[in-house]
Amino acid sequence: MSKNSDVLNLLNRVGLNKYESELYTALLKMGSSTAGELASKSDVPRSRVYDVLISLEKKGFALIQVGRPVKYTATAPERLLGSIVSNYEDDHKERLSEFERIKGSLLKGLSSIHGTEGSEDENMVGIIRGRSNIYSQMKTMISDSKSSIVKIASGESAGHFEKHCSSHIEGAKKRGVSSRLIINSGGKASDSKNINYSSDSRASKRSHGRFLVKDGEELLAFLKGGESALWIRDSSLAGSFAGLFETVWQNSK
């Protein structure tokens, strides 16, 4: 892939379509230009050049120079990047504010149609991809727990678990839920002892995988690499992992 193609793809990722990307890069190359000059130097159809330039101007990628003939110039890359960041921040605030306004109605509406034409299987297996989604699932499991949460994690992932889930663990403990954590160092030195964990914790030098079990009924098992996990709602399988945890717990310090 050429360097120019890479740039066009990146421009697409920040919100420009194919024609907008091509005209903006043409403006960068040519400097101040008329619409006719741009039409002859780019692959954008002549009939589309004017409306594409207007779109670029609205998005902050181009400036219109007053005069005859009317000319256009590209916004300098350094200035453009700052503008993009600012727009993203403003857009994020607007979207977050909008979400806060509608989330109650959205939850009510979605809940009203959830399972209306079917029912969930008692036992389920699903794959969760992405660490943020995995942590979100862990938080949900902890928040829904009624009796116990047990987890085995490596030293590093135990620290991440504490960072993301400590408030949920504290909330569960206030409801009378027991929470225990085994930090698996795999025989390697770890700085996990320097962390004040929300859960009762012990250390193990042997590797036992990475998983979390809720109430002996649900299991979240990390796959190799930590970017994906299996979520399993099966009391038999979850109970087996809970039993493994108990064995390791008794042999850990």
| Name given to the CATH homologous superfamily of the largest domain | Endonuclease Chain A
Q: Average pLDDT value? A: 82
Strand proportion: 15-25%
Low-confidence stretches: none
* Radius of gyration over all CA atoms, rounded: 27 Å
Report the CATH architecture of the largest domain. Answer: 2-Layer Sandwich
The total tally of domains equals 2
Q: Helical segment tally?
A: 8
Largest sheet: 7 strands, mixed
Question: What is the top-level CATH class of the largest domain?
Answer: Alpha Beta
Per DSSP E runs of 2 or more residues, the count of β-strands stands at: 9
One letter per element, helices H and strands E, the order comes to HHHHEEHEHEHEEEEEH
CATH topology of the largest domain: Endonuclease, Chain A
Helix/strand/pairing class, anyone? alpha+beta
Order of strands in the sheet with most strands: 3-9-8-7-4-5-6
Helix content: 40-55%
| Distance, first to last CA | 55 Å
Principal-axes shape call: elongated
Structure, explained:
The protein is α+β, with helices and mostly antiparallel strands and 253 residues long. Helix content is 52%, strand content 19%. Helix 7 (155-174) links the parallel strand 4 (148-154) and strand 5 (178-184). The mean pLDDT is 82. This is TrmB family transcriptional regulator.
Features:
253 residues; alpha+beta; Endonuclease, Chain A; two-stranded antiparallel sheet; 52% helix
